[in-house]
Amino acid sequence: MKLKRIVFKFPQKHEGSRTFLQPLAIGSACGVFIALVLTMGIMDLRRSERSLIGLIEKQGLAISEVLQKLTQENLDIIVRYTQEKEEKYIPQMDDVLHPQKWLTTEIAEIAKMIDERWLKNNLSDEYLRKIAADNALWLVATLNREGKAVFKSRSLPKELLNGGTSEITIAALADLYQKKKIGGFIGLQRKDGSGMVVIAMDKEGLLFWGLKAAVKKALEKLGEGQKQGLIYVMVMNKKGMRLGSMGVIPEKWHPQEMPIYELVAGMKKWASRKVIYLEKPVLDMAVPLYTGGKVAGIIRLGLDREGADAILKENAYNLIIFMIFVVFITLFSMWLLYHNQNKHMAGIVEMERQLEKAERLSSLGKLAAGVAHEIRNPLNAISMASQRLKREFVPLDDAKKEEFLMLSGVIKDEIRRLNGIIEEFLSFSRTRKLELRPYPLGDVLQKIVNLLGEEAKAKGITIKTNYDGSSFVIPMDVDKLMQAFLNLIKNAMESINSGGKISISVERRERDRVAVVISDTGCGMSYEELGRIFSPEYTTKEKGLGLGLPLAYEIIRGHGGEISVTSEKEKGSTFEIILPLERRHT
User: Fold this and answer.
1) CB 492 within 8 A of CB 502
2) pLDDT of residue 468
3) Are 195 and 143 contacting, i.e. CB atoms less than 8 angstroms apart?
4) Are 542 and 548 in contact (CB under 8 A)?
5) Has residue 185 got a pLDDT over 50?
6) Which of 367, 396, 426 corresponds to the end of one domain?
7) Is the dihedral of CA 96, 97, 102, 107 positive or negative?
8) What is the Cα–Cα distance from 124 to 145, expressed in whole angstroms?
9) Between residues 97 and 236, which one has the greater pLDDT?
10) d(CA 379, CA 415)
11) Average pLDDT along the chain
């Protein structure tokens, strides 16, 4: 059937109208859709970012609340310890002595550091003034053996001087403490008795050091909890002096980075910013530190946001992939509309080909019905003739008698099998019930080799077998499985033009499976042919129906087996049939 070329044209309303109007309209609609999806995707990414940052901020606020609570508890203990004790008041020694001891130890460490510089003659009033300013100390002074101030951080008030001299006495410091003009003092005697280091603090300094002790104790307890995602914590008072820290703290913070004034004034509950610290994405938070209901300082928290960034990155990647997919669909739609005529033509050609195949199979079925009836009578005559030959014309020679009986048996078996094939030919596409019984696999293959031996010899084909040493007995329908192997071996013989080799071997594959491998040195097949050889609609033979391989495939599958093929052009093919050693119930 010769197909004519059909050309479709879009109707033209007026001169100059475009035939590409429909694809462009679809493209415009898709462009609007892409823009809408992109906008929604960006908004969703920003919403996800806000949600993730919000979760991290909630974590930071929870940590700061715990830190404030611990600080307030420790500060209450220190304040209670410094108050006058009533008769009925009994302090909790473990809670009270730790911050008090830490406070004394820290101030004593400052005194020791000053004493070391004093021994090295590297001490000055300017250095002591810096020490006092950095640590909120009211007075830092070094006294000689007579009690005179050698170096001091400030001019000495009259209350400390003994009779107008420059001598400072511990009694004078104690008197100022009793009058509550200073918050406390400490004197560290030098080991050689040559003087002492005196450190005194006013009420503001005492509050600073008490808060510092409370914060340090709170950070110790917070560190025991090992807060996941917490990189660093630093607590500062309102003047920016460090009260305590945990983790690796950034060296400097610029005031403009965070709205510190608004946080200290209580105008904001917290502030945060995204930074890169130690090559890791960090959310830097600032939260006011409340003690006694008032802002006493700032808590700076560094929270790991690597997980959140990974989620946002994945979402952005998914959005990009989705947008690429949408653009591809748009271009594909335009191409599809532009080439719809060719697609319809290809569909028409395919439908005609399918109709031709259907007609061929229908004719084949009708022909098979007539052939089956016509062939059955000659087969019966041949069967009766073979039986008479076997009964009345047996050679007297023992050697020829054995060969005669073997050939007559082959004729009888093949007539019976051919009759079964004819009866089942019409029901090829339906599932056939197999009558399975144990039978040696090697015997089936050897019968086929005996049957095809003369034909192979005439074509110069050598059949090599390797199953003599195996004794595999498998459940099989002998006639049908023999038909399958016969079709496969005959197909191998037909692929060899002049002279070649066919190898048949039986191998153990797994514990309950056996493989029959049939290899030939024929013409081989291409990759496209391999994918279609088991289809009943495909054949490369000029004569015949080409149902040998599809029939073999159906039979092997009915036995619960598998069949695979490897082939290379001009080098041959290999069929591997794997069959179960035991019957499988389905």
Assistant:
1) yes
2) 65
3) yes
4) no
5) yes
6) 426
7) positive
8) 18
9) 236
10) 7
11) 77
Please, how many CA atoms are within 13 Å of residue 534, restricted to the half-sphere of its CB?
A: 15
For residues 228 and 303, give the distance between their C-alpha atoms in angstroms, rounded to a whole number. Answer: 9
Handedness of CA 500, 506, 507, 510 (dihedral sign): positive
Give the mean model confidence (pLDDT) for residues 62-76.
84
In a domain, 508, yes or no: yes
Q: Which string of DSSP letters, residue by residue, matches 311-325?
A: HHHHHHHHHHHHHHH
CB atoms within 10 A of CB 210: 24
Q: Using CA atoms, how far apart are residues 216 and 274, in angstroms rounded to an integer? A: 27
66-102 b/e with 16+ CB inside 10 Å = b? ebbebbbebbebbeebeeeeeeeeeeeeebeebbbeb
Sign of CA dihedral 130, 134, 135, 139: positive
Residues 449, 486: Cα–Cα separation, whole Å: 9
Residue whose structure tokens are 């307030």:
72
* Inter-residue long-range contacts of 39-47, CB under 8 Å, 24+ positions, other chains counted: 41/319, 41/322, 41/323, 42/319, 44/315, 44/319, 45/312, 45/315, 45/316, 45/319
Same domain assignment for residues 76 and 119: yes
Do 378 and 393 sit in the same domain of this protein? yes
**334 and 457 part of one domain:** no
Query: Looking at residue 473, which CATH number applies to its domain?
Result: 3.30.565.10
Q: Which pLDDT band, with edges at 50, 70 and 90, does 420 fall under?
A: low
- Considering the domain architecture, whether residues 485 and 403 belong to the same structural domain is answered as no
Assign 454 a pLDDT band (cuts: 50, 70, 90).
confident
**How far is it, in rounded angstroms, from Cα 155 to Cα 139?**
9
C-alpha of 310 from chain center: 13
Q: Do 353 and 325 fall into the same domain? A: no
Q: Please report, rounded to a whole number, the percentage of residues in the chain having pLDDT higher than 90.
A: 7
Note the pLDDT tens digit of each residue in 21-31.
Answer: 455 666 677 77
Q: How high is the pLDDT of residue 255? A: 59
519 shares a domain with 585 = yes
Same domain, 97 and 235: yes
DSSP 213: H
DSSP class of residue 2 equals P
Whether 133 has a pLDDT exceeding 90, the answer reads no
Which two structure tokens, joined as six digits, stand for 553? 């495939």
Determine the structural domain holding residue 272 and report its residue range: 22-83+91-138+202-249+256-338
- Count of C-beta atoms within a 10 Å radius of residue 189: 13
Question: What integer pLDDT is reported at residue 240 of this predicted model?
Answer: 79
> For residue 384, how far is the Cα from the chain centroid?
72
In a domain, 523, yes or no: yes
Question: 119 with 267, same domain?
Answer: yes
Secondary structure of 76-134 in the HEC alphabet? HHHHHHHCCCCCCCCCCHHHHHHHHHHHHHHHHHHHHHHHHHHHCCCCCHHHHHHHHHH
For residue 229, tell me if it sits in a domain: yes
Domain boundary among 289, 313, 338: 338
Is there a domain that residue 189 lies in? no
Helix H or strand E segment including 560? none
Number of domains within the chain: 3
